[in-house]
Design brief:
The chain is mainly α. 74% of the residues lie in helices and 1% in strands. A two-stranded antiparallel sheet has the order 1-2. Keywords: Cell membrane, Membrane, Transmembrane, Transmembrane helix.
Length: 315
């Protein structure tokens, strides 16, 4: 393992130590549980973003897909707008809608040959449009006991949402480590031309990665709905930048071919701990966005030093 692999983990330990020394409240068990719960949705969303980044693509569709999923699930489970009570089936359908939007991003990328930056930005707008139409000016508040319980029911001190996030990280790691999709996502980001010359049709795998990412975003939207008790069009606001920040800080390269789910999970914890610690030591929340921006620039700069020294170019 290189320093680029262990560096984020070392940084996490150092930051935890600094905040533990500065704030007694940071050292409490309840605060550790709060950090884990706060990281749950971001961890799930970052799992999806990680696979896209491993291919060397960028995904900005997160806000739109999460918004569409949040409104969809709120209207399919027990709510104040209609008589639907589909329960977990409604959750599955909402995730399926999100996967469909992710698939749309992948198809636009491989068929229209439009850069992923633009295709996913367009799909985000589509998702927000769908969510706004379903919202119809009346907020759907959920009354489904199972979905509401995800945010409040606890096991071993952690909410159900946190355990869902842990399961997603494990699933993402297994897909990355043991499936052809995960291996090819790495290969596409590292040397797509070589993979294509070896006889592999990369297009279906690109579409599959975006579809899987959309499913992760959809689950994230469902989790936000559980937290808020209502479906909101803006349920995914800001999660695109936060997820990319966490993935890059954890060691997943924007250029693709390096990193992975576990790397990005460390990045999620690092960002969440930093946010929590800054609040506890009295730093204004309005500075947190700026701090995240500085961190992602520093992380990208550190990650590309070897390539810059080798190639002597900046793209």
């Amino acid at each position: 393992m290189s320093f680029r692999d262990t560096g984020p983990l070392i940084a996490l330990v150092v930051i935890v130590g600094i905040f533990a020394a500065l704030s007694p409240g940071f050292r409490t068990l309840s605060n550790a549980q709060n950090i884990m719960d706060a990281a749950a949705v971001l961890a799930v969303v970052t799992c999806g973003v990680t696979f896209v980044l491993m291919m060397g693509s960028i995904d900005l569709s997160t806000p739109g897909i999460m918004g569409a999923s949040a409104i969809t699930v709120a209207l399919l489970v027990a709510n104040n707008r209609n008589d639907n009570e589909l329960g977990l089936l409604g959750v599955a359908l909402a995730i399926l809608v999100a996967a469909g939007l992710g698939c749309l991003s992948g198809l636009a990328l491989v068929l229209l040959k439009v850069p992923s930056f633009m295709t996913t930005l367009g799909v985000s707008a589509v998702g927000l449009g769908v969510a706004t139409l379903l919202f119809a000016g009346v907020q759907p508040n959920i009354s489904d006991g199972t979905l509401s319980g995800w945010a409040v029911d606890r096991f071993l001190g952690l909410s159900t949402l946190t355990w869902i996030a842990v399961a997603c990280v494990l699933v993402g790691w297994m897909v990355q480590r043991y499936t052809r999709l995960g291996r090819y996502a790495f290969a596409i980001g590292g040397a797509e031309e070589v993979l294509a010359l070896s006889g592999v049709n990369v297009k279906p795998y690109k579409v599959a990665v975006f579809t899987m990412a959309g499913a992760f975003y959809g689950l994230g939207g469902v989790m936000v709905t559980s937290q808020l008790g209502a479906g909101l069009v803006q349920a995914g606001r800001g999660y695109d930048f936060s997820a990319i920040t966490a993935a890059v800080v954890g060691g997943t390269l924007l250029a693709g071919g390096r990193g992975g789910v576990l790397h990005s999970t460390v990045g999620v914890l690092l960002v969440t701990v930093l946010t929590n610690g800054l609040v506890l030591v009295g730093v204004s929340p309005y500075w947190q966005g700026g701090v995240q921006g500085l961190i992602v620039v520093a992380a990208v700069a550190a990650a590309v030093i070897p390539q810059r020294r080798r190639n002597q170019v900046t793209k």
